[in-house]
Amino acid sequence: MDDKVIITCALTGGMTVPAQSAAIPITVDQIVEEGVRAARAGAAVLHIHVREEATGRPVADVELFERVLTGLKERTDAVLQPTTGGGRGMTIEQRGAIVPRFRPEMATLNAGSFNFGLFPIAQRELDLQPWEIEYLEGTRDYIFKNTFADVAYLSKLMAAAGTQPEIEIYDVGHLFNLRQLLKDGIVSPPFNLQFVLGVLGANMFEPDQLIHLLRTAERLFGTSNFTWSAAGVGYPGQFQVAALSLTLGGNIRVGLEDNLRHRRDAMAKANSDLVDKAVHLAALFDRTPASPEEARSYLRLKGSIDTDF
Ligand code: KMH
Ligand code: ZN
């Protein structure tokens, strides 16, 4: 994979509210259209959340997931990776329901609990709906709960469904959590890790932080026991993380779930703007986007045929 890079596009999600950008896909049709365009632009993996269609509020509605997953599967071969992280206010059962229902090739598995602060967004000059203010302000008292019991619960669902977890690591302690889960036989290598930097309450992006995460994973698990990708939250963090990940030989995640700008002075008009920029950046490092089939082989996925949607 030296000359390839797996680009994941996180299309929409619990990190943002609709008032921040008209480009954030809300309805099933919008999410599907955005996913198709992102895949055409070079994303091999589509990371998926759903939103209540009337309001844009992040929800864990299985019926909405079904419409998005089937809509995307009809039109793209990209790996479809639904979230089990969800958004504020969802129980672990609600978050995990997509796994036995759809038996996806891949789903996210968040490796630790932490504060998840979105409240600074409520201080900006935005035309926020009352629910958006409540959602953002409510994160002053929000813990993104991923206890050992939660991870074990989701991990068991994924093992039974043949779903490969993408393990989200936001801070170095999450790697030590993973080591304990490994010792307890709850997860097994090789792991697919996603280092996420820039969430208020976990780790911010500094080059040393990403390098420390990578070196710690190498030390704990051995270099051949995991693949990795990195995701930066916000701008310019999303592309700074991508550039460092490309430098270090990792894969990258971009998308409107985590960042709304594709240049300092320009909002992205679509997820594909962010994927386009990632493809151009990768080209500077002599890397071209992996195809969905190449991603499946590298990430050891079972294939889209063996899913229930
Ligand atoms: N938006 C990321 C910071 C998940 O969906 O499981 C969190 C995320 C986790 O994408
Ligand atoms: Zn997500």
Task: List the main descriptive attributes of the protein structure presented here.
single chain, globular, alpha/beta, binds zinc ion, two-stranded parallel ribbon, 309 residues, 11 helices, TIM Barrel, 16 strands, 8-stranded parallel beta sheet, binds (5S)-5-amino-3-OXO-hexanoic acid
Overview of this structure, please?
This protein is α/β, with parallel strands linked by helices. The protein has a single domain (4-115, 147-306), classed as Alpha-Beta Barrel (TIM Barrel), CATH 3.20.20.70. The protein has eleven helices and 16 strands. The protein has helices spanning 28-41, 62-75, 92-96, 98-102, 130-137, 148-161, 172-183, 207-221, 237-248, 271-284, 292-299; strands at 4-5, 7-10, 45-48, 50-51, 58-59, 79-82, 106-110, 114-115, 143-144, 164-169, 191-197, 226-232, 251-254, 261-263, 266-267, 288-289. The strands form five sheets. An eight-stranded parallel sheet has the order 6-3-2-13-12-11-10-7, sandwiched between helices. Strand 11, helix 8 (207-221) and strand 12 form a beta-alpha-beta unit. Helix 1 packs parallel to helix 2 (62-75), helix 1 (28-41) packs parallel to helix 10 and helix 7 runs parallel beside helix 8 (207-221). It is globular, with a radius of gyration of 18 Å. The mean pLDDT is 97. It binds (5S)-5-amino-3-OXO-hexanoic acid and zinc ion. Zinc ion (ZN) binds at residues 10, 13, 47, 49, 83, 85, 257. Zinc ion is lined by residues 10, 13, 47, 49, 83, 85, 257.
